[in-house]
Structures are given as C-alpha cells and as structure tokens.
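Here is one chain, start to finish.
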Amino acid sequence: MPKQKPAVEDIQDFAQNIGDTVREPLLMLDTTLRVQSANRAFYQTFHVTPEETENHLIYELGNGQWDIPDLRTLLEDVVPKSSVFNDFELEHTFPVIGRRVMLLNARKLLAGNHGELLVLAMEDVTDRRRAEEEVLKAAADLKAIETFSENIVDTVREPLLTLDSTLRVHSANRAFYQTFHVSAEETEGRLIYELGNGQWDIPALRTLLEDVVPKSSVFNDFELEHTFPVIGRRVMLLNARKLEAGNHGELLVLAMEDVTERRHAEEEVLKAAADLKAIETFSENIVDTVREPLLTLDSTLRVHSANRAFYQTFHVSAKETEGRLIYELGNGQWDIPALRTLLEDVVPKSSVFNDFELEHTFPVIGRRVMLLNARKLEAGSHAELLVLAMEDVTERRRAEADLKAIGTYAQDIVDTVREPLLMLDTTLRVQSANRAFYQTFHVSPEETEHHLIYELGNGQWDIPDLRTLLEDIVPKSSVFSDFELEHDFPAIGRRVMLLNARQLLAGSHAELLVLATGYKSQQDSVRAYLGDAIADKVGPVWGFDAGGELRNMWRRTAQPAAASQRRAEGHAA
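Its structure:
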C-alpha cells in the first residue's frame, strides 16, 4: 500500500498541471462550497491570490463579488439535482474586470481522500456575445436596408429589372409590371429574352447584355427603339449596373426610361425651329418688301438689321449700319434729341408707340418730317428687339399746311361776305357761321356752334318751312337757290329771307351744308322789273301755299297774259 501513495500524488499533480494549463478559469469547491483550489487562469482573470481564495466560501471571494443570485441558484438548486451542468450563462459586473458574460460548466467528482468535489469551469463569452449582438444588429440593419432598397425600387417611377449572372430575372419593380402589363409570375425566374412571349428578345438588347455590359460594370443611356405588343412603339433609354448582392451573388440592375414623349417633343422642337427659321425668312422678306424704312434695334440700341427701304431712303449701306449704335449712323445724322427722348424715355415705359413726329435735316435728303412707330418684340434667340418704322410725311405735312392756308383764306372770304352764312354738318349741327350771321341775328359763336340749327336763339330757327328745305328738299339735291322764308325773329322782327343751300365735301370735315340767307325775295325782283301792279297780282314767290304747293313756282302766276291786258286797256279807252 505505501507504494500506491506516490501514484495518487502523481495523479493529483497531473490533474493540477492540466488545470493550470487550461486557459479558462477553474474552481474546485467542496460540498460546503468552499474553494479547495483554483487554476492560474482564475487568479489571472479575476486578479486575486490563492491566499484570498482557497478555503473561502465562493460567495466571500473578492469582497463578495461572487455573491451573485444566479450563481447561488446554480450551486444550491441546480447542481445538487444533477451531477453535470453546461452553459449556465451568468452576466455580472465584477469590481476589477467590469461587466462580463460568463458560461459556467459544473461537474461533481469523487476525489479520493478529498471526498466529493465540484469542478466549476468558466468561459468569458463577453466578446463573443458582443460579436453576436453586432452580427444580429448587422443582420437587422441589412434587412432594414434591403427593405428600404426594395421600397425605393418599388417607388421609382421608371421600370427596373434585376438579373442574375445567367440573365434570368431575379426581381422587378412595380413600374416594370405596370408599364409592360405583365405579372411577377410571368417574369421572375425567366430569361429576359423569354419575357412577354419574347417581346424582349431584341438584337440591340442582346448586344447590350452579352457584349457591352460584360466588358463594363456600368453602362448609361443605351437607346433602344422597339414595338412592344401591348404598349406599341417606344424609345427606351437603358442604364445597367453590376452589383455584388451578398448571398444573391452578382446581380445586374437594368433601369429603363421611356423617352418616347421626350423624343417626340424634341422632334417637335426641331420642327418648330425649322418653322421659326421659315417664319424668320418670311418676315425678313416682308420687311424687305415694305416700302417704308424699318430698323431693328437690340436692347443696347445697336442696329440688328434694316430693310432695303431704309438703305435706299437714307443712302447708306448695310456695312455702315448693322452692329452700330443708332446715334452713330450716317456720321451722327440720327443723333437727334427728340429721337433720344423716344428711345430712352418713352419706349422703355411702353412696348408700343405710334406716330412720334420727328422733324430733322438729314445730310443727303434734306429737311424731312418723319412719323415713327416703335414696337418691342420678343424674338426667340435674338432676345428682345425694338422695331422702328419710319414714314416720311414731309409732302403730307406740306399739303396739310397748304390746305390749312386755303381754309384760312376761305374763312376770310366767308367773313368778308355781307350776307349771313351757316355751315351745317350732316346732323344739321352748326360747324361755323360768319360774322354777318352773328351780327344780323344778334347771337354769339358759343350760342351757335355745335348746336342743332333748330335750337339756335331759343328755337327761333325751328321753322316748318326750314325743316322742309333741310330734311326733304336738300337731301334730294346738292344745290338749292332762292328758297323764300318769312318769319318773325325775336331780335330783328318780321323778315323775308332768301335761302341758298350747297352741299360741300370739306376734307377732314366730311360733308358740310352751306346755308346763305338774304333779305330780298323774288317778289321784290318782280316788283323792280314789272311794277307794283304785276307784283301784287303775282303775289309771294316761294314758300308753301294753303294747299301745300310751292307758291308761283311750277304753275302759271296770277297776273293776266299780256294780250288780254292790252285788250282790256283798249276797251277802257
């Protein structure tokens, strides 16, 4: 028997050496939960010594840092019912080493003369747990990103296809299904060329996917024009990207933009540009055809262009004109204060101006009166232009001056005539009267001009015979003479007037009626030539009799014939 003792000691030393070699902390507890021994890893991990550890209750170790409710549960409730226990997780904040997650394994051993022992092995899995948490967090983030990406893909308005390395559809977004009127069942897992009964089996697309994309991981704006069965002829721009998609392997994202309407719009723009060019040419032809001089100025008042009439009128060339300030043209002949006023003060406040009169002596053509019209135009690529149109009204102004002189001359004659005269317009309103009229009837111009003739002098001219003349007789004849009118006028008493009327075309006054009045009647003329007896027998000439006929005008007069008169005188003798 004495020979066996060293063998037991050897075994114990062997066991101790194993314990000290193990990298995880180990505690040997007796049945009272006092520490029999601990390995080097325990002392190093928890920063304690054998003196502070051995023969102490486990709960007293390190100032009670092991007095942990979960550990008590393990040692006092779980282990007694089972001689083995693995992976009991304990999370605790230790004074020196901080927060730790430990996995505990427990074994009951029969240890010879030591009686029953409990081996407690501890594995610090704090870093592992943190790594697992990071992995879980990363997985959650990845899932969130994937969900986020899928939501973006489904939100994008342009169709998207995701293809695997064999060009089979991995997924498509909602816009793809809606645009091409296909379902997920008809799409996912199929070769792109098989989609929609082969509507994507397009030579240009094969070229892109099989030749172009493999040589480049990115491709933009590959234009594809094709007639699709449901949606018809479309022009599509394709972008392609190769993606490394984790456990999905390599994927190819194909984004499609339908630019059909854009292409139509671009064609319309080109057509509009051509039309605009045609209109511009047409406009230039019109401008060159117009007989009045035209200048087109830019916003700095430099000449953009001029028409043929301008060059011919002012005896200048295009080279001397275009690109120059208007004030520099013709050695400064257009540097005119009134023109500066028009262009710098008047036109900027109004986009349109008409009939600005400019009188100036030009070096070659002499004194001229010009009427200027100005228009601001928005001229497309030319920005804002100012069109200046000029009309030479020199001869017209001379004619107007001559006409005015003639009018003054005529008015002087009218005012010189001794008999009263009235000028009436077509509504029988007085345009003017001469001095003799105002003096004869004791009225003023203010009481006369622009009034109806019947309103003059408190209605003294509202005479039935005069209405007959003006409204019935004159309209049928532009001339009438010796219309006899007998009337009591308020200021001058009973008067017999002879009226002559003439319709005149009076230029800017349109049609006028000249009404001339006199005091002598035709009966006075009969009296002067034939004597009182005959005149009394003839009676009044002109005016209306009781039967409504003109007196002694269109029928025989009342005096006897000359032969009857001589016989009567013979019998009397």
